[in-house]
Design brief:
The chain is mainly alpha-helical and 98 residues long. It has three helices and no strands.
């Protein structure tokens, strides 16, 4: 497995190359199996790195009062509407003196 500074990027690039080869070439079974095993290892490595980054981001996030807050990452409209409803709830709580 790659262990340099940009190890995730290199592993991901290698994984993409393996997928392209497996999809586009007529490979002997043993070669295909070997590439598949390499791909699984790279996939697990990349997944582990992504999980580590996710944990770091969770530690960095904080609410308006500076308290750490864990929020799942959501893309698209759902995340925007959730953020707006959270802001509305915070405003309502402030007005009520909570």
């Amino acid at each position: 497995m790659p262990r340099k500074q940009n190890e995730f990027e290199k592993a991901f690039q290698q994984l993409e190359e393996i997928v392209k080869r497996l999809e586009s070439e007529e490979l002997p079974l043993d070669d295909a199996l070997h590439l598949f095993e390499q791909g699984i290892g790279l996939s697990r490595f990349c997944n582990q790195k992504l999980e580590e980054v996710e944990k770091k981001i969770e530690l960095i996030l904080a609410d308006a009062k500076g308290q750490p807050r864990v929020e799942p990452f959501e893309s698209g409209v759902a995340a925007e509407s959730d953020a707006e409803s959270d802001a509305d709830e915070d405003d309502a709580a402030s007005e009520e003196g909570l």
